[in-house]
Design goal:
Jelly Rolls; 11 strands; globular; three-stranded antiparallel β-sheet; single chain; about 45% strand; mainly beta
Length: about 150
C-alpha cells in the first residue's frame, strides 16, 4: 500500500509506468466528467468515476482484488479508508472474476487513512481495504479509482 500526496508520486513510481500514468492523469482529470468507466489503455489501465455518500464503517465491507491494483483518488469531499495487512482473511463472498472482487471478514487489526483531494492511496492485490467510510457523518464524495493490471 502507498498513501501520499499526488505531488510526490515520483518518489514511488517510475515515469512511464502504468501507476505513474494513472496518478499523472488524476492530477489533471476533469471533475465534471460523468460517472462510469473511462477508457485509458484498454484493460491494462482504466478509471472508474463514481459519486456516492460515505457510510459508517460498520455498513461497509473489506475487499481485495486479484488482477488489478486500485489507485484511489478523491476529487471532491473526503472519506476514510481502512486497510489491513492481516494475511489469510476468510472470504465472506465468492470471488467475482468479472468484477475482480472478493469481500472478506473484518480483520482484527487495521489502520485508517483519510482520502481527500490531492492525496492518493494505492492498494495492491494483497492489501485488504474498506473504502467509502464516513469520517464524522455521511458525506458526498466524487472519486476516481484507477484499475491497473498486474503484469
Amino acid at each position: 500500500m502507498v498513501y501520499d500526496s499526488i505531488e510526490r508520486l515520483d518518489l514511488y513510481f517510475q515515469k512511464g509506468s502504468l501507476l505513474h500514468d494513472a496518478l499523472t492523469l488524476a492530477g489533471r482529470f476533469d471533475p465534471a466528467a460523468p460517472d462510469g468507466r473511462c477508457e485509458i489503455s484498454g484493460d491494462r489501465l482504466y478509471a472508474q468515476v463514481s459519486t456516492y455518500e460515505t457510510q459508517p464503517a460498520a455498513e461497509r465491507r473489506f475487499e481485495a482484488h486479484r488482477k488489478y491494483i486500485d489507485v484511489q483518488v478523491v476529487l471532491e469531499g473526503e472519506e476514510r479508508i481502512d486497510a489491513s495487512l492481516e494475511p489469510d482473511l476468510k472470504p465472506s463472498t465468492e470471488y467475482d472474476d468479472a468484477r475482480d472482487l472478493v469481500f472478506l471478514e473484518e480483520p482484527g487489526d487495521y489502520a485508517s487513512l483519510v482520502l481527500r483531494p490531492g492525496l492518493f492511496a494505492v492498494f495492491f492485490p494483497h492489501d485488504v481495504h474498506r473504502p467509502g467510510c464516513s469520517i464524522r457523518e455521511p458525506a458526498r464524495v466524487r472519486k476516481l479509482v484507477f484499475k491497473v493490471l498486474v503484469e
